[in-house]
Specification:
- The complex is a heterodimer of chains A (275) and B (306).
- Chain A has 275 residues and is mainly α.
- Helices cover 77% and strands 2% of the residues of chain A.
- In chain A, strand 1 (30-32) and strand 2 (36-38) form a beta hairpin.
- The longest helix of chain A is centred in the N-terminal third of the chain and has 33 residues, at 53-85.
- Chain A is globular.
- Chain A starts with a helix and ends with a helix.
- In chain A, 49% of the residues are buried.
- Chain B is mostly helical.
- Chain B has a domain at 95-305: MetI-like (MetI-like fold).
- Chain B has helices spanning 12-21, 39-69, 87-94, 96-129, 135-147, 150-168, 176-200, 205-212, 217-245, 262-270, 276-299, 302-305.
- In chain B, helix 9 (217-245) runs antiparallel to helix 11.
- In chain B, 42% of the residues are buried.
- The chains are: A mainly alpha (275), B mainly alpha (306).
- Chain A: Residues 59-265 form the ABC transmembrane type-1 domain.
- Chain A: Keywords: Cell membrane, Membrane, Transmembrane, Transmembrane helix, Transport.
């Protein structure tokens, strides 16, 4: 049986685990303008990243963006997931496929769509101008707001699918019992659906938060040159800066921040509602 | 996405009984209550439907937009369009970056699927059917490529490839082999995930019956297990292909001049301009993904596996 598992495990070990160890080692090396990289064991790259106000700003932007987008995605995704979970007709499978397709269409494709919608001559500005509401185009694209909307559009299908699979497993009879006993729709949601769906909510938020922290294409294409998030900053170090040790350190800071916050979030939410 | 379950599974018997008993649907969020709901109830229901609509509007707005602009007659996207045309589709194919990017992505995704699906299927089979020590750990390792941010994994592979080029004295970065190897990291975890999900629903009785009737293990595997697994494997192959074809971040540092994938070519183009030619390329991809997912859904109900 091991013979069946071994090839796949070896491939993942050779192409993911090994390279990640190498990247960790490189993050402890020293950068040199002439030799690119000098073998060393120093935490200097990490200290530099934390001390530099520019990268502190990039990290803060990334965190704020990820929190806002996750919260809004949950607020928008929950009603849609509930509706999908409680569908009973043959439409349900069609709606599921429809929810899944955007998830598989690349982020670049969707950023292109947002550029067409939000650009200076885009649909929204053209409509506003046509209605005589504005004379100058509104600056919609290349703003943090554009990145937020673009990111939410990317991660919403993940949230909807995760939540709906959990809501589906809540027996409808439980809701009906609460309603029969006089609970209002909001009370049923707050006291019955929300607590029972909580494991799914946590899982969905963790997944979405990770995706938001690592936004690349949306941030690059909709954020403009002034707006910087962590994933593009990592890429820049490797492709343009050629400062590999610093880029490696940034990559691990991003990875660690994501990991610590998701573990912390899961533990906090789990404890608060565990009973 | 699908592993999370809350509380007990749906009690279908109770649910059916309740459905039969109730005169009017009472589920407060899903269906209208008894005649004459109060204003606040109606407003609440309206807000609920508005939220559902808004969620799907945000998801589909950019996709619809791309499809629409690919037919605009003028070169710079402005509203309203001067007219409609399909010439951008021909123009897109005439652009070497897009045509070559498409062919490169196609090659990479096909090869990565051809390698990753057999490896992933074998591993999933053993993980579900055999009792192996450390099964949970192996499962985590095999799914890890989906959990590590693609830009971080891509940077690690980039460094690894440069190191390996030094050792082996050969080109790896921006070669077909290097890119296929990277994309196998996408196809293996998706295959493990989808085949595991479809294996979990299979009844072992048919295999046991065949073995009892004297079939050798290999015969049982080729005549019983494999045919039962076929929908899961087809779904895994289509899903893996699409995930690899559409991937941007993992390949970003591994491509080079002369060998670029389609998403990377589109990204560099979009950093300068958004025009109907790019929208045409994007629309072709949307069409491809839609068709492949509808085909996948015929083999395995996607609502069951995601």
């Amino acid at each position: 049986m091991f013979a069946l598992i071994l090839p796949a495990v070896l491939v993942v070990a050779a192409l993911l685990v090994g390279p990640m160890v190498l990247l960790a080692r490189i993050s402890l090396n020293q950068y040199s303008a002439t030799q690119l990289m000098i073998e060393a064991t120093t935490a200097q790259n990490y200290l530099n990243a934390v001390a530099d106000p520019y990268y502190r700003g990039v990290m803060l932007t990334t965190l704020v963006m990820a929190f806002i987008c996750t919260a809004l995605t949950l607020a928008l995704g929950f009603p849609a997931a509930y509706r999908l979970a409680r569908m009973e007709s043959r439409w349900k499978s069609l709606v599921t496929v429809l929810t899944l397709i955007p998830l598989l269409v690349g982020n670049v494709v969707r950023a292109a769509g947002w550029l067409g919608l939000l650009g200076n001559d885009g649909l929204i500005n053209a409509t506003l101008r046509g209605l005589g509401l504005t004379s100058e185009p509104l600056r919609l694209v290349y703003t943090p707001g554009a990145v937020a909307v673009g990111t939410i559009a990317v991660v919403l299908p993940y949230m909807i699918l995760t939540l709906s699979s959990v809501i589906e497993s809540i027996p409808r009879a439980v809701e009906e019992a609460a309603a029969n006993l006089g609970a209002s729709a909001f009370t049923v949601f707050r006291r019955v659906v929300w607590p029972l769906a909580l494991p799914g909510t946590v899982a969905g938020c963790v997944l979405v938060f990770i995706l938001c922290m690592n936004t690349y294409a949306t941030a690059v294409l909709l954020g403009g040159s002034q707006f910087k998030m962590m994933a593009p900053a990592v890429y820049d170090q490797f492709s343009k800066g050629m400062n590999w040790p610093f880029g490696a350190a940034l990559a691990f800071i991003l990875l660690a921040a994501t990991l610590v916050l998701t573990v912390l979030g899961t533990a906090l939410l789990g404890r608060r509602y565990a009973r | 996405m699908g592993q999370v379950r809350a509380g007990p599974g749906p009690d279908t018997v109770t649910r059916e009984a309740v459905t039969r008993m109730r005169a009017a649907p009472l589920s407060p969020l899903a269906a209208p209550a008894l005649a004459g709901p109060g204003l606040s109830v109606r407003l609440g229901r309206l807000a609920f439907l508005a939220a559902v609509f808004l969620a799907y509007a945000i998801v589909f707005a950019p996709i619809v937009m791309v499809v629409v602009t690919s037919f605009f007659d003028q070169e710079i996207v402005t509203f309203p369009p001067d007219g409609l045309t399909i010439r951008w589709y021909l123009n897109a194919w005439a652009q070497r970056d897009f045509a070559r990017g498409f062919l490169t992505s196609l090659q990479i995704a096909l090869a990565a699927t051809a390698i990753g699906v057999p490896l992933g299927t074998a591993a999933a089979l053993a993980l579900v059917r055999a009792t192996i020590p450390g099964r949970g750990f192996i499962n985590t390792v095999l799914l890890a490529p989906l959990a590590v941010p693609a830009i971080v994994a891509g940077s690690a592979l980039y460094m690894f490839y440069l190191r390996a080029e030094d050792w082996l004295d050969m080109d790896i970065k921006a070669t077909l082999g290097g890119l296929v190897a990277a994309n196998v990291l996408i196809t293996i975890p998706w295959t493990v995930r989808l085949v595991t999900a479809s294996l979990a629903g299979l009844d072992r009785a048919a295999e046991e019956a065949a073995a009892n009737l004297g079939a050798r293990p290999l015969t049982v595997f080729t005549r019983i297990t494999l045919p039962m697994l076929r929908p899961g494997i087809v779904a895994a192959a289509l899903f893996s292909f699409v995930a690899s074809f559409e991937n941007l971040e993992l390949n970003l540092l591994l491509v080079g001049p002369g060998r670029t994938t389609l998403p990377v070519a589109m990204l560099s183009y979009l950093e300068f301009r958004m025009d109907p030619t790019l929208a045409a390329v994007a629309t072709a991809q949307i069409l491809m993904v839609t068709i492949l997912m509808l085909v996948t859904d015929r083999f395995v109900k996607l609502s069951r596996i995601v």
